[in-house]
Amino acid sequence: MKHYDVAVIGLGIVGASAAYAAAWAGARVLALDAGAPGAGTSGTSFAWLNAVRKEPEVYHRLNAAGMTAHRELSRELGGDAGYHDGGSLEWAAGGDEEHELRERVHRLASRGYPAEWISRERATGSEPGLAIPDHVHEVAFYAADAWLDAPRLIGRLLAAASARGAEVRDGTPIRSLRARGDRIEALVGDASETVATSFLVCVGPATQAFLEPLRVVIPVGRVPGLLVVTSRSAEPLHRVVHSPGIHLRPDASGGLLLGAEDVDTLAANADAPRPPSELAALLLERAGRVFPSARHVKVVDARIGVRPMPGDRHTIAGRIPGFVNGWVIATHSGVTLGPLLGRLLADEIVRGVPSSMLTPFGPERFMTAGATTV
Ligand SMILES: Cc1cc2nc3c(=O)[nH]c(=O)nc-3n(C[C@H](O)[C@H](O)[C@H](O)COP(=O)(O)OP(=O)(O)OC[C@H]3O[C@@H](n4cnc5c(N)ncnc54)[C@H](O)[C@@H]3O)c2cc1C
Questions:
Q1: Are 223 and 294 in contact (CB under 8 A)?
Q2: Which pLDDT belongs to residue 269?
Q3: Same domain, 300 and 345
Q4: Which of 27, 125, 138, 293 matches a 20 to 30 Å C-alpha distance to 208?
Q5: Residue nearest atom 52 of ligand 1, based on CA coordinates
Q6: Is there a single domain that holds both residue 233 and residue 265?
Q7: Ligand 1: which of 207, 261, 315, 335 to mutate, most ligand atoms within 8 Å of CB?
Q8: Is residue 330, in this structure, part of any structural domain at all?
């Protein structure tokens, strides 16, 4: 029977990054996904690479390090690996929102994050298709922000991992992990079991349900969001833009990608869900106000994605409580954080070098005394 050093379960941006890093570190890697790699949340994400609203500071720094890891990875892989730089722009409606944005830009800049105010003329100079309201004289610019074609990067990571000897399997659901004492022994699939020395669980929004049979409770909620893809606009958009009531960016298809936080809430309302077509029309109407070229595009797709949301909203990355050879990563902002978290946990698993950066983010923070498992 073939032996693997590391089995990675789940190949979204997080698992694909970990599989790549573990193969790079010399491990014999088995990487599997229930469906097609990248077809989970990572394929239905706004995928803005940023550390703009990530508090407290330790979480901000983790996300900023995640952005650096993306730049390094993009250089390492070469060619088109899905990384699109150019920064991002944001303005507020006025009043309390303007105040919050001014405080935030100041706080980010004082931490060394590229955050500054630029004139509306400079903003429209770099983004001629924008219609910034007259009352907005300055726009926040975050020069290091980017967006990611996540499915493309996932494909490149898995191809590079395969080239280093990793075995990548799609359409392979894992029913459970078989454990004895404090060791995980095997992956239990539909028809067979597979043994490995170490196991890394990267199943995104399925994390809590996946770990329950091990009698481990790690709170990871499922928070839906709606994104709309449009046809190509006459005027191109070059970067991520956040304005009151709508955020937009270029989509990998050549159209626009649209979203809004309050529309996510409407889409997620289980009691009275609004049809995606109605919400898509709302997003399109809002986009047309700040990017007039969007008044002439059509909705091509309306996608609901499900965010994996840790109980305290911060990254979970570390050893599964109660097990010496099992690890888990579950996180929101996983597109920003995937390459960093994958690399740090691969280092811990393969080289035995834990990262102090992850100390505040271990899963054991959810375990109360005497309740490590249920
Ligand atoms: C609308 C929306 C907007 C977002 N915007 C941003 C943003 O701007 N920036 C950002 O950084 N993040 C953003 N996020 C969050 C980000 O997309 C997620 O945190 C990230 O995609 C999670 O990646 P993942 O690899 O953990 O999960 P996934 O991409 O869901 O991958 C998990 C994989 O595990 C597989 N799997 C599950 N169960 C099993 C099993 N039993 N056996 C085998 N395989 C299994 C699935 O098939 C899936 O492919 C957004 C999310 C949404 C929904």
A1: no
A2: 74
A3: no
A4: 27
A5: 45
A6: yes
A7: 335
A8: yes
Does ligand 1 lie within 6 Å of residue 40's CB atom?
Answer: yes
Please state, in angstroms and rounded to a whole number, the distance separating the CA atoms of residues 327 and 319. Answer: 4
The residue behind tokens 């978290």 is 341
Q: Is 11 in the pocket of ligand 1 (CB under 6 A)?
A: yes
Can you tell me the mean pLDDT for 51-60? 98
Do 237 and 303 fall into the same domain?
Answer: yes
The total number of structural domains in the chain stands at 3
Cis peptide before 56 (omega within 30 of 0): yes
Residue 104: domain span: 88-143
CB distance 10 to ligand 1 below 6 Å: yes
Q: Is-contact 250 147, C-beta < 8 A?
A: yes
Q: Which of 32-36, 254-258, 272-276, 366-370 has the lowest mean pLDDT?
A: 366-370
* Ligand 1 center from residue 38 Cα (angstroms): 8
Predicted TM-score (pTM) of the model is 0.97
For ligand 1, the distance from its centroid to the CA atom of residue 33, given in whole angstroms, is 12
In a domain, 72, yes or no: no
Of the pLDDT bands very low, low, confident and very high (cuts 50, 70, 90), residue 46 is very high
CB 121 within 8 A of CB 134: no
Tell me the two tokens of residue 20. Answer: 């790549």
Q: Are residues 43 and 178 in the same domain?
A: yes
Q: Residue 232 phi/psi, 5° resolution? A: -65, 135
Centre of ligand 1 from the C-alpha of residue 266, in Å: 21
DSSP states of 94-159 as a string?
A: SHHHHHHHHHHHHHHHHTT---EEEEHHHHHHH-TT----TT--EEEEETT-EEE-HHHHHHHHHH
In this structure, which residue's CA is closest to atom 35 in ligand 1? 10
Identify the residue whose C-alpha is closest to ligand 1 atom 2. Answer: 45
* Domain-embedded: residue 252: yes
What's the CA gap between 66 and 339, in Å, rounded? 7
Please give the Cα distance from 172 to 118 (Å, whole number): 50
228 lies in the same domain as 291: yes
Q: Is the CB of 66 under 6 A from ligand 1?
A: no
Q: Is the CB of 9 under 6 A from ligand 1?
A: yes
